Amino acid sequence: MKKFIEFFTTCVVLQYLCGICTTHLLINVKNQGGDILLETISSNVTEDVITLEFQRSDGTLVTQLIDFKNAIQVIKALVLGEEERGQNQYQVMCFVNHFYKVDFISSDAMSKLRQKNPGTVRVAEEDKGHANYTMDLFLDVSQSKDISKHVASLCSEAAGSTYTRTEDMKQWIQRPGSSEMTLMAAVYNFTSTPLSQQNINDTRLPLVSKCADTSNLWVPCTCSLELCIGWYPCGLKFCKDALCASYASMMIPIGRTIFAIRINLLA
Predict the structure, then answer these.
(1) Which residues of 219-254 are buried (b: 16+ CB within 10 A; e: fewer)?
(2) CB 65, CB 150: distance < 8 Å
(3) Residue 105, CB-side half-sphere exposure with 13 Å CA sphere
(4) Average pLDDT, the chain
(5) Taking the CA of residue 66 as centre, how many other CA atoms within 13 Å lie in the half-sphere pointing to its CB?
(6) What is the Cα gyration radius of the chain?
(7) pLDDT higher for 230 or 241?
(8) Is the pLDDT of residue 15 over 60?
(9) Is the pLDDT of residue 204 over 80?
(10) Cα gap 50→110, rounded to integer Å
(11) Which of 113-122, 194-203, 208-217 comes out lowest in average pLDDT?
């Protein structure tokens, strides 16, 4: 009986560990410029989170985190500095926004993805076009836990360069159990005024020039950062050939997608 209990306990522990483990996919992707990039896609079913990461040909490291529990997308960009301009080694920026869950396959579905030929170079079959995000608010990383607990850990190096939008704040305020006061205290506009002292319903953005066209360093201006996710699974299908007939849970991705993100900063 004692051995049975020990065996049963071991099985329960193993099942628990399997439930919390994170699955990884390494995808070779050809982007629109013809470069071959390596995407790492991780899925954590317990946390209900998907993380995608790749390094661009210019050295920029891009990390995308999808938090399904809170419907939050975090995009982190680690941009290498230009030494000839006296810039620091690198700069880290984070961009946090609301998304609709139908836009991405679930973390559970992603965790079931497998590749029959891991060395295959993937090319997007569908172009999702461009999405423009105009960031008009600073987000205080240390106060971001009510938005998503993952912001603080992912954006720890971007304490002064994490951004979001007023329209995203409106979405988060409507979430059940959210504290409007706590959420608004976590964000500031670019004049360093807490959003709690502003009118959340005022969606008008200031008319400012591009930073490249502005000589005065203290005048508000806009700059932009364009990022492209070269390949992302949007569906699943079961393997049918003899090779994977014995693996009922083995799935391969279909309907590869590509989408570009243009991030505008009002600074």
Answers:
(1) eebbeebebbbbbbbeebeebeeeebeeeeebbbbe
(2) yes
(3) 20
(4) 77
(5) 23
(6) 21
(7) 230
(8) no
(9) no
(10) 8
(11) 194-203
Query: Helix, strand or coil for residue 16?
Result: helix
Q: What is the separation of C-alpha 94 from the centre of its chain, rounded to a whole number of angstroms?
A: 9
Residue type, 58: D
Model confidence at 17, pLDDT cuts 50, 70, 90, reads very low
Q: Return the amino acid letter for 66.
A: I
CA atoms of 243 and 151, how far apart (whole Å): 41
Would the CA dihedral through 205, 206, 211, 213 be positive or negative? positive
Q: Which amino acid is at 140?
A: D
Of 259, 262, 257, 228, the residue nearest 105 (C-alpha) = 257
What is the model's pLDDT at position 8?
Answer: 42
Amino acid at 114: R
Paired tokens of 203: 């969606």
Q: Which residues contact 155 (CB under 8 A, 6 or more apart)?
A: 74, 76, 92, 94, 96, 141, 144, 162
